[in-house]
Kynureninase
Amino acid sequence: MPTSDEAGRRDAADPLATLREYFRLPADTVYLDGNSLGALAAHIPERLSRVLTREWGDTLIGAWTEHDWWSAPLRVGDRVGRLIGASPGQVTVGESTSVQLFNALAGAARLRPGRDVILTDTGHFPTDRYLADSVARLLGMRVIAVPAAAAATAVAQWSGQVAVVALPAVDYRTGELWDVAATTAAAHAAGAVTVWDLCHAAGAVPLALDDDEVDIAVGCTYKYLGGGPGAPAFVYLARRHHDGYDPPLTGWHGHAAPFAMEPEFRPADGISRTRIGTPHVLSLLALDSALDVFDKADLAEVRAKSLALGDFFLDCVADLVSEDGFEVVTPRAHRRRGSQVALRHPAAYEMITALLERNVIGDMRPPDLLRFGFNALYVSFRDVYRAAGELRDIVRSGCYRDERFAVRRLIT
Ligand SMILES: *Cc1c(COP(=O)(O)O)cnc(C)c1O
């Protein structure tokens, strides 16, 4: 079992330890839910305040040009692109993740006319599945869902019929990391295109979308990227598809000449055709500021630290796993793990709620998973040690069985 001294030594040797100072985190709180809502970078309020008063307040409509709000979806898109292995001009930011997913799935299907299958993951996030089902109904297609691990085999089996392979890069529950390169290659061998969901990967796991020849990818910006609640999503469209991409949601910001106010849609050249309508400028610029932190951090170091935190956590809870009925559902192997660790226990809800009372914030997914996210930008080894210690205390004391934890169950 690791000791508290060891946690301290690991923190002292951590090259990213100083990054925590860039965040506003409540004192005495261990935040292991940055995979759901990233923490606030402390400089964002001032930037937003300037945007509100100077840009909006003083400049009014002129801010679209004077402060170049107009290009913000492209500018911020390129900043996200650097974190996901996309060279400039292939990413825009705007709309919600669900809207972008809908658009991407329908747009991908249009790239493969005559094929009628959307292949997806049985464990995919609900919104991804609901949207795939709806796109399939709209376009006269059908959805085939298989476990993500079997996607490469399945696409070969339905070769010639699969238009779109829609998968997460990291499973939101188990934290498993899938092989983007190999699955994309399998999809291409079967003539399909890929729509990767990067919600639990962007900003945590180095990605190489260009090198892996990914077609389309979508991701949230309020998880590891720290853009804030409801921050707009990003969409990556590989350059080779730009000319042939027929955007399903034909909003005027994606028009070739938006201010000509033409009666018919003509898609813009390049990545701009993935734009839809007026973006949420305040959220977009909050995200722009949030990304400043990544300019100070090497994503390879972020990844290495996140894995080390996960390993340290698993070492700290090894006794609970062997003696107290927990199961580790996240693969231990680094190449198969994202940036969170999930434990299975029938009393997951009660335990997470009991942890909350002790200022250790993790979360749970039904029916029985405890999720702990390790955002390397602000989580320390001491945090992990404390979280594991509190969990042990809650389990060994049995206090999680107290009624006050049961009443907060989110589902029945
Ligand atoms: C977080 C998450 C979403 C969220 O979609 P919203 O439209 O932002 O609510 C979608 N898909 C996956 C895989 C996620 O992890």
Summary: The first helix runs from residue 4 to 12.
